[in-house]
Each structure stands twice: as structure tokens, then as C-alpha cells.
Design a protein that fits this description.
The complex is a heterodimer.
Chain A (H helix, E strand, L loop, with lengths): L12 E12 L2 E12 L3 E5 L6 H8 L7 E6 L2 E2 L4 H7 E4 L11 H11 L4 H15 L14 H13 L5 E5 L7 H18 L2 E6 L2 H7 L2 E6 L2 E6 L1 H5 L5 E8 L2 H9 L4 E7 L2 E6 L2 H15 L2 E8 L3 H9 L10 H14 L1
Helix pairs in contact in A: 3-4, 4-5, 9-10
Chain B lengths: L3 H17 L1 H21 L14 H30 L2 H6 L5 H27 L9 H28 L6 H15 L11 H9 L1 H13 L7 H25 L4
Helix pairs in contact in B: 1-5, 2-3, 2-5, 3-5, 3-6, 3-7, 3-9, 5-6, 5-10, 6-9, 6-10, 9-10
The chains are: A alpha/beta, B mainly alpha.
């Protein structure tokens, strides 16, 4: 944890988690998590299924009470003044949470009324958020007739209507098609920029975390196992991989390369040379210069940057994880068993 | 603690959905209508011991069926929290700044309004079977009793739903709690005709007093003193509102 919390100014932190813990029976779903999120930051919680991301969000949004430890959001304690916490946050849940028996507009209107926003202002804001998510024409259709993507967009609109200072996004693009996902990503970036909104998102999509987040906490088994910028996390791996096809002059080229300290690993198979380096793109010209000196011809070169996925696998040991049984799925499984008998 | 805006929103939502869901409305009053028609006509000539002869069975039955309508619609609206939990809408309400107490009161307000509308529909439908409606002030007074009855059973529904985590326990609840409450209440026959051991349970059933008060107001015949009925209804509804507020506050949302 290079970017620990201790070297940051306390006053700049919008969200502070201090030893936050939640246990279900024997299982510690969230285990002593301490971190802070800066004001105006897009912060990612990345982890496999069942890592404890949603449990953290549920505690921060006051839906669950922590077993021990605590957290503050915009200075309000999640246990002592939950109503003030709720006033300053917006949340877009992982599972649908719309009233499908109401129209899109009614869903937004009722939500805004809960925050005590007056009629004229509500009208204006509803028009605005509907335009942002592109649902203006469908506003007066019952939500049960919406597609999955439209529902998601409506939930995002609802999360924004009361102008929260902190927005929680729990798997915001889960199960959406590529275009919708890209659109939603752009909305999220936009919101963060225009309204200086602090955003916390959970995801298990690497490219999502990479594209959106300024900092990422990698969570596994309820614990933070790494916390850094996406680029910083990638440096946890040995580096970029350069693959060169070379021709002739190897007897003088190889010894030259061996002297270079920035080369971490080197392998030669036939005429293919793979080199692991840091800052691969900056090393390419240098490699060509060395090749020129030693009379080696480089016929092709490719550079592979490590992906966040590589980092993730490196940290968590595997990319696929069985979902931990939630109480809900457990009950359903029980019902199914009873019905089978 | 109590936010009128939040209560109003939840009430408005319930009313809008009620008006829209015609099938739900028809489904909810279908059973009381059948009970009223078949029991009312089938037992038309039955004379219960202990009833004044000038009160026909239909006159006697109508307030009971009105009570039954309030019991079923009330308990189901209370338990509709489970539906909201299933569809995730409960979480949405719970992350807004609305206090838990306001959320409970909003639900009670919405549920009581729809229950009373359905009960009044039953009352007016019964006129077609020959029920003699009392004067308007009496009908207005009966609405007060209806309000107590529906609040009581909405709260019981809310309390039950805070213990049940999903919709599957619903039928069990209906069979083992709602039906006994109905059958014990004397909605269909005088409680005094039950064996003494069972009568004890009748006297613990708030619907017994609700139905009795409705009879007193609507047909001018009550087994108990109507003021005692009202006092018991008032005390139990107040206690249950507090209890459901407490359960809702304590219960896990997810």
C-alpha cells in the first residue's frame, strides 16, 4: 500500500473508513478496512465476486450496521447520524430498485420529493436528468416496459436528481451492452468533472476500473490487498513485455543487452527475443540504437502493457471465484430443494 | 422525526398504484364478494340463537364481510413490503433521508386509504343483495372504525414482513394467521356460539371488536358496549403502530 492514508490531508477526505468490519456468523465479509477517499475523486473497489465490495457499500449507505469500526461521509458518522449521511449521498444499486408500476417520471419525482425539493425545482431537475440519460421521450412510460439499459439509465438519473455530494455506484454497468456501458462511463466522468462529485464505484470489470478510477482498492476476502492508481498497480508486475524479431549480430547484441539494468528478464527463442522492461515504449528507441551498433536487424517489434487483469490475477491468485452464498440465494436454494421433494 | 413530505410521497405512490392496478382491486374484493353472495344468500333463512329475530343473516353478515375485507387488504398491504424488498424498491426508500418512522406511517396511510376504499365498495355492493344502508352520519362513523381495523392489520402485516425475508412464507402466514383471525372474529356467526375454550381466542382477536363496532354502527346491534370496542381498537392500533415502527427500525433491510 504505497499511497496509504496517512500522508494525505484529513480535511480533503470526503469518505473515511476506519477499521470497518462486518461479520456474518463466522465469516468476516469485510475485515478491518481502513481507507479514505479524497474529495472529487473517482475511487474504485475492485474485487472478485463475494469479496465484500457490496457489503462495504451497504454499510456506507446506512443499509447495514457495521459489526465494528466505523466510517464518516462528508463528516457525518454512518451510525450516529445516518439521516445526514443519506442526505449527502446518492446510490445506484447493483440490483434493480425501481418501482416498475410507476412511470420513469414518477420514479424520479417521488425520489426528489423524499429530499424535500420543491415542485418547480423538481420539474427543472427531472427535465435535466432525463436529458442526461437520454430518456426524455420515455419519461411517461411505465417502467415495466423499459429495457434493461433504460432501467439502468433511469436509476442513474434518480441517483443524480438530488445533487448528492457523494455518489455510490455498485457495479454500474453489470450486464449492459458495450454501447450503453461506454455511454454510462462517459456520464460518470462528466458528473465527476462538472459537479466535482466524489464517486465510489465497485466493479469486477478491469477495463471499467482502469478507464474510470483515479485510485483503486483491490479487495479480496474482505481485506484490502492493494491500493494505488491503475498505473501504480500495474507496476506491481515486473513490467511491459517487448517482443522483437531479430536477425544476425546476436553475439554482440546479447551481451550489450545483458549490461542494461532496466532489463528485468530476457528470453531468446529462435529469432524471437522477449524482454521484460519498465516503461517499454521509452526503451524501444534505445533498443534500436543498440541493435544498430551491434549490426542486428530488428524486423518487428511489439509491446504488451500489463492489464489491470494481470495485476488482479497476480494479487488474488485467480480470476474466477465462486460467488459466496448470500442469505437470499440460500433461501431460494432451500425452496428449490423443498419443491423437488 | 416525522416528515409529512415522505409520508405523502408513500401515500401518493400507493394510491397511484391502486388506481392503476384494476386487476389487483378486483382480485382483492373478489373473495369477500363471493363470501357475501354465497353465505348471505345461502344462510339467508338461518336463525342464530341469541340474535334478535328482526336482524336477518344478511344484515348480520355485511359488517363481518366489511371487516374481512379490511383484514385481508390491510394485512396484504402490510406484507407488500416483502414485494418491495423483492423488487429492490425498499432499499431505494431506505437510502433517502426519510426517517424510518415516516416510512412506516406513509405505508400505513396509503394502505389504510386503499383498504377503506375497498371496504366501502363492499358495503355499497351489498345493497344490491338487499342490505339496508344506515344514514350518512352512521356510514361516516363506520369509516373511523374501518380506519382502526385497517391500521391494526397493516401493522400486523408490517411486523410479519419484518420477520420474513422473502415472499415464500406468504401463504403460510395467510393460512395460519390471517384466516384464524377472520374465523375467530365473529364475522360469520356470533362468537358466543363457539365453545368456551375457543371463545378465549376470539376475545384476544382485535377483529372481534372491530366487527362488533361496525355492527353497532351499521345495523344497530352489537354484542359488546361499542365504547369498549372503540377503546380496545384505539389501544391496540396505537400499540401496533409503535411496534411496527420499532420492528421496521430494527429489522434488516436487505
Amino acid at each position: 500500500m504505497k499511497n496509504g492514508i496517512f500522508d494525505e490531508q484529513g480535511s480533503m477526505d470526503t469518505i473515511i473508513l476506519n477499521g470497518l468490519t462486518k461479520t456474518f456468523g463466522e465469516l468476516a465479509a469485510v475485515d478491518n478496512v481502513t481507507l479514505s477517499v479524497k474529495s472529487g475523486e473517482i475511487f474504485g473497489l475492485l474485487g472478485p465476486n463475494g469479496a465484500g465490495k457490496t457489503t462495504i457499500i451497504n454499510m456506507l449507505t446506512t443499509l447495514m450496521v457495521p459489526t465494528s469500526g466505523g466510517a464518516t461521509i462528508t463528516g457525518h458518522d454512518i451510525e450516529k447520524d445516518p439521516e445526514d449521511v443519506r442526505r449527502s449521498i446518492g446510490i445506484i444499486f447493483q440490483d434493480p430498485s425501481l418501482d416498475i408500476g410507476l412511470t420513469g417520471r414518477e420514479n424520479l419525482d417521488f425520489h426528489a420529493m423524499m429530499y424535500g425539493i420543491d415542485t418547480a425545482e423538481r420539474k427543472k431537475r427531472i427535465t435535466d436528468v432525463l436529458a442526461i440519460v437520454g430518456l426524455t421521450e420515455k419519461a411517461d412510460v411505465l417502467v415495466e416496459n423499459y429495457s434493461g439499459g433504460m432501467k439502468r439509465r433511469l436509476e442513474i438519473a434518480r441517483g443524480l436528481i438530488h445533487h448528492p455530494r457523494v455518489l455510490f455506484l455498485d457495479e454500474p454497468t453489470l450486464g449492459l451492452d458495450a454501447q450503453t456501458r461506454r455511454k454510462i462511463w462517459d456520464h460518470i466522468k462528466d458528473l465527476n468533472k462538472k459537479h466535482a462529485m466524489t464517486i465510489i464505484l465497485t466493479t469486477h470489470y478491469m477495463e471499467e476500473a482502469d478507464y474510470l478510477c483515479e485510485r483503486i482498492a483491490v479487495i479480496d476476502h474482505g481485506k484490502i490487498i492493494a491500493l494505488d492508481t491503475p498505473a501504480g498497480l500495474k507496476t506491481l508486475l515486473k513490467g511491459d513485455v517487448l517482443t522483437l524479431s531479430v536477425n544476425g549480430g546476436l553475439s554482440s547484441f546479447m551481451p550489450l543487452l545483458k549490461e542494461k539494468l532496466w532489463i528485468r528478464e530476457m528470453n531468446l527463442h529462435d529469432s524471437n527475443l522477449t524482454i521484460t522492461v519498465t516503461d517499454g515504449e521509452k526503451r524501444v528507441p534505445e533498443l534500436f540504437a543498440l541493435a544498430h551498433v551491434s549490426g542486428t536487424a530488428i524486423t518487428s517489434v511489439s509491446l504488451n502493457k500489463p492489464s489491470l487483469e494481470d495485476v488482479f490475477i497476480h494479487l488474488t491468485g485467480s480470476s474466477i471465484r465462486e460467488q459466496e452464498g448470500t442469505r437470499h440465494s440460500h433461501v431460494h436454494a432451500g425452496m428449490r430443494r423443498r419443491m423437488m421433494r | 422525526m416525522i416528515q409529512p413530505a415522505a409520508i405523502y410521497v408513500l401515500w401518493l405512490r400507493e394510491m397511484l398504484k391502486f388506481v392503476r392496478a384494476k386487476s389487483r382491486m378486483i382480485g382483492a374484493i373478489a373473495m369477500p364478494v363471493f363470501m357475501l353472495v354465497f353465505l348471505g344468500l345461502g344462510f339467508r333463512r338461518v336463525e342464530f340463537p341469541g340474535l334478535p329475530p328482526e336482524i336477518g343473516y344478511l344484515q348480520y353478515l355485511v359488517p363481518g364481510i366489511v371487516g374481512m375485507t379490511l383484514l385481508f387488504t390491510g394485512a396484504f398491504t402490510g406484507m407488500s413490503v416483502l414485494m418491495d424488498r423483492q423488487f429492490g424498491f425498499l432499499k431505494e426508500v431506505m437510502v433517502t433521508p426519510a426517517s424510518r418512522v415516516s416510512i412506516v406511517l406513509g405505508r400505513i396511510a396509503g394502505g389504510a386509504s386503499t383498504s377503506i376504499i375497498q371496504a366501502l365498495m363492499m358495503l355499497f355492493l351489498s345493497v344490491f343483495l338487499g342490505f339496508a344502508l344506515p344514514s350518512f352520519p352512521m356510514i361516516a362513523a363506520s369509516v373511523v372504525v374501518m380506519m382502526f381495523i385497517s391500521v391494526i392489520f397493516i401493522c400486523i402485516g408490517l411486523i410479519l414482513s419484518s420477520f420474513m425475508k422473502d415472499i415464500h412464507g406468504f401463504n403460510t402466514m395467510t393460512n395460519f394467521i390471517i384466516f384464524p383471525i377472520f374465523l375467530l372474529s365473529g364475522a360469520l356467526f356470533p362468537v358466543r356460539n363457539l365453545p368456551a375454550a375457543i371463545q378465549i381466542f376470539s376475545y384476544l382477536d382485535p377483529l372481534t371488536y372491530g366487527v362488533d363496532a361496525l355492527r353497532g354502527i351499521l345495523i344497530g346491534y352489537a354484542a359488546f358496549n361499542i365504547w369498549i370496542d372503540l377503546l380496545i381498537l384505539f389501544i391496540s392500533s396505537t400499540a401496533l403502530v409503535c411496534a411496527s415502527g420499532y420492528c421496521f427500525k430494527k429489522g434488516e433491510v436487505l
